[in-house]
Amino acid sequence: MDTMRDRFAPVVSRLLDEDPRVAVVLAEIGKDAFHDAMARHPDRVINVGIREQLLVGAAAGLALTGLRPVVHTFASFLVERPFEQVKLDFGHQGTGAVLVSAAASYDWPAGGFTHMAPGDVALLDTLDGWTVHVPGHPDEAETLLRHAVAAGDDRVYVRLSVQSNRQARPVDGAHLVTVREGRSGVVIAVGPLLDAVLDATRDLDVTVLYATTVRPLDVPALRRATEAAGTDVVLVEPYLAGTSTAAVNDALSDRPHRVLGLGVGRRELRRYGTVEEHAAAHGLDARGLRERIDGFLGAGRGATVRV
C-alpha cells in the first residue's frame, strides 16, 4: 500500500491543474515529486531551498495576493522551526494556507530528534483559528487534502504519517466517526492509532470514536457518545500526550467526567530503533494501550470524579 505522503504530490498536482488559485511552496524536501507540475506551472510551484522561515513567509505573501498556498516539509521544519512566521505571517496578518507535514512524531527514527515533532499540534493550539486534520489512511489523506485546499482562505494543518490503519473510514473533514458502540466508557482514537485502539479494546464494552479532524473537535458527537457510554473518556493521540484533553474537558464542562490522555511522552528516546519500537516505548501499541485503558476504566467503576 502507498503512504499518505505518496498521495500528496499527485493530489496537489491535480489541484494545481484544476484551480488557478492553488500554489505550492517547498523547502527542498519533496521537490522531485513536483517536477512535472513545476514545468506546467512555474509561477505557482516554488522551491525556496532549505529556508523554512522563508517558506512560510513566501506562502503568506502568496496568500495576500489571493492565492491558496500549500506548504510542505517535515513537521519539525514546518511548525517548530518557523513558528514565529506561522504566528505572525498567517495569524497576525489574517492570511490562510494549507500546511502539510511529513515525518510526524517519529516516522523517521534514524533522522533523530531533529526530525521528530510530537509537539506540533500542541504548538498550533496556542494560535487561533487553525483546523487540524490527522488522517489515518492514504485514502483519508487524499480526501482531507482536498477539503483543506477548498476551505476558502482558512488556516489548515494536515499531518501526514507513514503509520496507517488497515482500512480507510468515511471522513468528511469535520465529524467524529463512531466505529464501535459500548456502555462503559468512550475511547477516542486519532488518525493512524485507530487499529491499535481497536485491537486493545476488542473485548471491552466501550464506544470507540475515530477522529481525523481534531481542531475543531466534534463536540456534539462526543456529547452524544458520553450520554450512552458514560463520561469516562480515553483520548489516544499520535502526538504529545494530553494535547486534546483541554478540548475534551471543555466539551464536557457541565458534566462530571474523567479524561485520560495517551500519546507520545515528553522524554526523548535516544535510540533510533523502528517506528514500531517507538510506538511500543510510548505505550501506543495494542498491549500498552490495553494496560492503561484497563487501569483507567477499572479505577473509575463506581466512582464519579471530575478532572
From TrEMBL:
Any GO molecular function = magnesium ion binding
Annotated Transketolase-like pyrimidine-binding domain ranges read 2-167
Name listed for the protein in its UniProt record: Transketolase
Organism this protein belongs to: Streptomyces misionensis
